[in-house]
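=== How it folds ===
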Amino acid sequence: MEGAKYFNRELSWIEFNARVLHEATRKDLPLLERLKFLAITASNFDEFFQVRVASIKRQFKENPYKTDASGLTPAVLLKKISDRCHQITKLLYGTLTGDVLPSLAVQGISYVPPKDYTSAQKSFTESIFKHEIFPVLTPLRTDGSSFPNIGNLRLTAAFLLEPMKGVHSLKTAITADETNDIFALVQIPANIPRIVWLPGNNGTKQFAVLDDIVALYGTELFPGYRVSETMLFKIARDADFAVDEDSGPNFIQAMEEVLQKRQSSFAVRMMYTSTSRKLLEIIKSKLALTDDDVYEVNGLIDPTTLLDLLNVENAPKFLYPEWKNFYPDDLPEEGTYWNTLRQHDVLLDVPYQSYDPVVKFLRDAAKDEQVLAIKMTLYRTGSSSPVVQALKEAAQNGKQVTVFVELKARFDEKRNISWAEELEKAGVIVIYGVVNLKVHAKICLVVRRESDGMRRYAHLSTGNYNPKTAKLYQDLSIFTSNNEIATDATLFFNVISGYSALQTMHHLYMAPVSLKSKLLELIDREVKQSTAENPGHIVAKMNSLCHKEIIDALYKASQAGVKIELNIRGICTLVPGVPGLSENISVVSVVDRYLEHSRIFYFQNGGAEEIFLSSADWMERNLDRRIELMFPVTDAEVFKTVRETLVLYFQDNTHSHTLQKNGNWKPNVPEKNEQAVRVQEVLYKKYKKRDDTKKSEPKVEFEVRRND
């Protein structure tokens, strides 16, 4: 990739997952944490093939000679993807079967493959198969003339069969000129636990897996046939479908049709065990897959289902030490927040701080008789969410509640449809997104009647309103009653409701209307203000950077002497450190126990510093095809905290990598005599110290005299 002006987006994404996998290979990490990173990597690649690779395959058919910004045609790109993904797959499963599982066995948690079952374990697993698994299975017979549909990402066992002499079946006999290959497919049930604990052995915990048991005893599904070969496999299918945006009142039905299509679309990748070359070739041919599309696995195919090991009795000793989250010291734990927010803004940094204040903010609004309305965007919020419950309660209490639900949040569509319908039944006004644009902004507005008139309280965030992911994703959000922000928030909701002309917002910047142009303006301002004596300075943290216009503006700024520091968790198609182009740009990436998810943008502005937070990455989909928001940090104390936090991210030398101009990511390690800095640990200890200080302070209580 060296010499290109832009790195390829897909290849850069693959390298992000190589950094995730790097964490799994680290022997200084707890064993089950390493297993988590393996599972995350495997899951990420499932989605990557379903969406990105499927899209490139479609491009290859439609316009095979078109090149992307990095100069690659679809065919060349698919080959590069295959080569690198095969390398990573080999490392992933080598780490799983050659390192993590053997290390767990040494610690007394042991996976037992069928070849190692003791006689007692054979009897136990055979009994489990007969009584609990066999009744659920449905063998699907196939031959040269028919092939059943195999569900997307469903683990499946294939059996090569040979009829025994003198046995007759309902199927018409195969004639002499037809193939003699008869094979059957059996889908591994998803509703039966994959981990099967075996009878105790000298105090160790031993387990088998469901797919092994089905493959071992599956011959009982085919009386009259002998199973000559077996193979386990999993297929990823094309999931890059767009819903019909013009379906009007039938939008939910159209979305459900998209979900159905994912189960029968064309196959993109197959993972398989190396136990039957014949079955591999047959299935590969049936699914029109090439050698580049199939990935051999020696051992367990799906690491994600091994996460049940996190529930074993002694699991905590193989996990990170617990990091509790802390209640913000500038919000009252009892009573409402209204008075506090009238005085100053409050920053929330999850998961170091508790997400409870967001839920409490909504619950208080739902119960408060003075609250008249709540307006909110929801992208991914999770099932049984307290956020949804609070909104339902507010509507039932007579509040005017309007929720903008993005049904098109990929792979969460079914869940979103379900709780959107719940909200409607409770009396909430539900608006299903915006035609042709995903609503990805994260904002909540509460309108309250107070003694001095109407006041609006806003919550703006870089991350989703999801209490579960708020324990795993690092995000920043701000509570504010700033009237200028609240006025813009009101205009924003009016615009996305569909019947308001675009109106100028002075403090909130909305994609695809003004956010990109504002970023370009801010970058250009640094260029104009930059001098040799006082060079401009841009510092930005985000998930991905691959917008060509933004990258070109950053290149121009670098050439003007502006110092640019970027912290990019995932995709980065900008090439740093190239003389005459990007020599003043550096790029680092942090991958640790929490998923870095916040977007923070700092501009020196000739000394009048500005910081913005945003729901948007610097990608075409975010800036050009989604409803996003960028908002300023205006409160002095909040500004100071965010700036200090942003600086910390460039000091990490234990869980970070630096992007080289050839596209490689170099792991950062402390230099000799240099202190080790782990940014997530530094932040955790900072908030813990604050909490300890708060708890050690004597509570001021007043005894009130009452005349009873």
